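Bumping with the actual sequence this time:
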Amino acid sequence: MRALVISGGGSKGAYAGGVAQYLIKEKGHQYNLFLGTSTGSLLVPHIAADKIDKIYEVFTDVKQSNIFSINPFRVRKKGDREYVSINFLNSIWQFMKMKRTFGESKALKRYLKKHFTEEEFNFIRTTKEDVIVTVSNLSKNIVEYKSIKECTYDEFCEWIWISCNYIPFMSLAKVNGFEYADGAFGCVVPIREAIQRGATEIDAVVLESENLEYMKVLGKNPFSLMLNLFGHLLDQVERSDILIGKLAAKNRQVKLNLYYTPSKLTENSLIFNKKLMQSWWEQGFEYAKNKDKEAMSNELRID
């Protein structure tokens, strides 16, 4: 059973879309099992529904207003560059309302349900083995994996949305008395879960470069420094997920194909820029194409 796994990574999900497009459209890979975390959970249902072209348009066209109902960021342009700063007014307003997050992401739920239809949901349930999204149950301090087979349409859309909620910048959700947030807080790359669910070959897209050793410019205020800190912590979770996944694959004799980004794509993956995301999609496609060529060349040398 072949599985496609897509990690968390915000706007960098466009890169994963390009990789998936090459693997499915050019290589003809057919997947039975799809697993995603955060932005990966947005992508995998559309990919499972055979809607690669649609998700390209939907994903690369997303704007801040499609994500945030209350945006904690302010994007300023200076020449050809964009700079991200705090939206102090919105953040203070959240504090005044006694909210626990700097922003709210209810707009994302509306955007998701607008573009992921109930017909597509039903198509996946009848034609694919499973689609799994990762969420963090903060109340119980555990990671949970939500299957499309065990949910109604509305429930599954809710779990996809929750999987993307990167607190404290997005919404904190409550379901059945438990509080949930972004799945990446517990598992960025759910390779091991794919193996436990029966995958014998896995294509895993990791939305970070393989070599994480680079000079990072730290934030100049507590708010942006917090973003840097969370990024650092998630990098460590990601490394652990990949190491555990590799060991599990080796023990179960599962073929694991890892697709990284060739470089650091962005410092703030919560900022969605159409031009950049279109470029990342193309980079993902070309990276997967070149990786495939290298693999074929190596096989010919061995023969």
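The tokens above came from a reply further down the thread. The two ends are 27 Å apart (CA to CA).
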